[in-house]
Design brief:
Oligomer: single chain
Number of helices: 5
Helix content: 10-25%
Order of helices and strands: EHEEEEHEEEEEHEHHE
CATH architecture: Alpha-Beta Complex
CATH topology: hypothetical protein yedk fold
Largest sheet: 5 strands, antiparallel
Shape: globular
Distance between the termini: 26 Å
Number of domains: 1
Length: 220
């Protein structure tokens, strides 16, 4: 699964790299993004790419209780196109969830050891995500991150990793009018391991309240 990640890249860099047309003027760096928080995501509406803050934990439009989103932070690539909770969003409401690293936990004899996984050049990237609009007197826009089998780097730590999309695939993934299942599902694969690295970090990251540059420093 993907349960924590970082986004510390300045918004002007994100706007340029992801060709965003509308965005907030700034974003607060987040070294410990956690479920239920607002997360930066790119969606396509009216022919424009918009950077919005979506609630992490997808709430289907038909849900009676928005708390269901707490259990839907991730969707499996193998079933995302079929499961009722995600099927409609997969066809019509795909998004890019922006990040520059993520955490996974490795089981050890001394408990779970957190690792930070990122691009070797520390550049930002985009998770494949889905978003939904839930309304009951007010609107909540929420999202989920799609996960897949791990590449060689992530496999040393965990048996899943988030789907990271290639830049040349952003346009098709974001297009709400493109709903051909097979081309879309072929994008949901592990990112090339040779571009990535992983290293252990302090267990301080286990608490979302610990949100500072120290949590991504290599463990002593």
């Amino acid at each position: 699964m993907c349960g924590r990640y970082t986004l510390r890249t300045p918004v002007d860099t994100l706007v340029q790299q992801f060709e965003i047309n509308e965005s907030p003027s700034s974003l607060t760096p987040n070294y410990n993004v956690a479920p239920t928080q607002g997360v930066a995501a790119v969606i396509a509406e009216n022919g424009k790419r918009k950077l919005e803050m979506l609630q992490w934990g997808l709430i289907p439009s038909w849900a009676k209780d928005p708390e269901i989103g707490n259990k839907m932070i991730n969707a499996r690539a193998e079933t995302v196109a079929e499961k009722p909770s995600y099927r409609k969003a997969f066809k019509e409401r795909r998004c890019l969830i922006l990040a520059d690293g993520f955490y996974e936990w490795q089981k050890t004899d001394d408990g779970k050891q957190p690792f930070y996984i990122r691009m070797q050049d520390e550049s930002p990237f985009a998770f494949a995500g889905l978003w939904e609009s839930w309304q009951n007197g007010h609107e909540i826009r929420s999202c989920t991150i799609i996960t897949t089998s791990p590449n060689e780097v992530a496999a040393q730590v965990h048996n899943r990793m988030p789907v990271i999309l290639h830049p040349e695939d952003y346009e098709m993934w974001l297009d709400p009018d493109f709903d051909e299942r097979e081309p879309l599902t072929t994008l949901l694969k592990p990112y090339p391991a040779e571009a990535m690295e992983a290293y252990p970090v302090s267990r301080r990251v286990n608490r979302p309240a610990n949100n500072d540059p120290g949590v991504i420093e290599p463990a002593a």
